[in-house]
Amino acid sequence: MARQYSLPDMFPPVSLLPPAADAAGRTGSYRTLKGAEKAWIVARVNQGNAAQVTFSPLQAQDVSGTASKAINAVRVWLDNATGTTDVFVAQTAGATFQCDASLADKIVIFEIVPEVALDMANGFKTIALQTSASNGSNITEATLIVWERYQGADKISTYTN
Q: How far is CA 57 from CA 21, 102, 159, in A?
């Protein structure tokens, strides 16, 4: 049956950055992708000021952020004005994405395939999201959606290595 899918069971969302004014920029919590087939960072900015915001996914060796660095280039999707459209447009693959200066509510999605995005050979298995300095009128937030490699009763935790 097509209706057997369940977001919390199959694609549990995890908060990376709670909604907040983002004048100085900030880095969210690191979450492990061990056991993940794929993940998506869903970043959002409610842009109340024309200052641009750059979203930068980071990778690290553990949930403490050890040896943090940029991810490799990944697929990026953008809905540049959620008030007027729900269409996501593919952007140039990259390790960061900078929103334009238009005043709108925007969603940016980074599609994370762990063995492509992360330096797994050197023990990098966690990700976080960093925002650039912007303006206090710009509210940002980010959620991590995880597709687990193995579905079952025992769920993985993104909070522990």
A: 19, 22, 17
**What pTM did the predictor assign?**
0.91
Listing DSSP states for 38-72 in one string gives EEEEEEEEEE-SS---EEEEEEESSTT-TT-EEPP
What is the pLDDT, as a whole number, of residue 152?
57
**The Cα angle at residue 68 between residues 11 and 98, in degrees rounded to 5:** 70
CA angle 101, 102, 105 (to 5 degrees): 110
Cβ atoms of 80 and 111 closer than 8 Å? no
User: Rounded CA gap, 30 and 46, in Å?
Assistant: 23
pLDDT value for 154: 58
In this prediction, residues 118-140 reach a mean pLDDT of 96
CA-based Rg of the chain, rounded to a whole angstrom?
Answer: 16
| 159 has a pLDDT exceeding 70 | no
Nearest to 103 by CA among 26, 30, 46: 46
pLDDT band, very low/low/confident/very high, at 92 (cuts 50, 70, 90)? very high
CA 46, CA 53: separation in Å to the nearest integer? 10
